[in-house]
Amino acid sequence: MIPSQARVAPSRAGLLLLVALAASGCSRTAPPPHLARLQVVEGSLSGVAEMGLDAAAVEALARAALAEAGFRFGAGEPAYLARVELTGLRVGPSAGGRGLRVDVRIELELEASGGGEASRREGGAGGEAVAAGGPAAAVRAALAAALGEAARGARLGLSAEQKPAEALLADLESPDVRVRDHAVQALGERREPSAVPGLVRRLQDSDRRVVDRAIGALTQLKDPRSVAPLIELSRQGDPAEALRLIPVVGDIGGPDAEGWLLTLQQAHPDHRVRAAAAAALATLPVPPAPPPTPARPAGAPAR
Question: What is the pTM of this model?
Fold first, then answer.
């Protein structure tokens, strides 16, 4: 007979192995995104070319920023194609008036190399006051900062796509505006109903980009719980805010939306708001009709 301890020991070892494998699986992170190709739009570089920055120099800065953000270059999955375009360059007096200040804006676009996935665009901005290095050094520093901001944003966006809903709901309260922004976007794209309360809170976010993104997410969700907060938001701004929110509220519909739109149509002092409310009322979703009451057989007693 095999002693009882000899029988128990392998079982305990097997249990420990299973626990270790489970822990390994739980801690495994998603593979880093790979870049199969990086393109710099040369036609957008006329301003920085005068500072000695050609496409090869900008590509080197972009590669450094993307690597710092966690991207890898070469074969691997998931793989993306990256495109960098300079969208703004301004060189002017610094705030103190003692030198120049350089401001750069770039756009980074990622597209899945296999197709079938929407492209992702991230903007970045950088500013640098001219110091001992002169204007050329300041342009390079500003461009590097803009590329770094865009690369970090792109990485956060890809990470948000892979997170479960619970993690994204927690990210809605993050002190990092980019984390909040990407969480709002991902939850809206998933049309996650449990996100409505958190998205409503983001209507009061300190960053206008997050507010705009939350409006878009709530538009996608079309949840009646968001109608009253959207109406309240419209009252905090000028007529332009109401004009933007009227079609959003109208698209969601419901009794509260209809009552608000009727009030705007009849009493708002701005003729543009009245016209927009009337247009939204004309296309207000019609609630489904209740099912017909079954006919009572002849001679059956009334209930």
Answer: 0.69
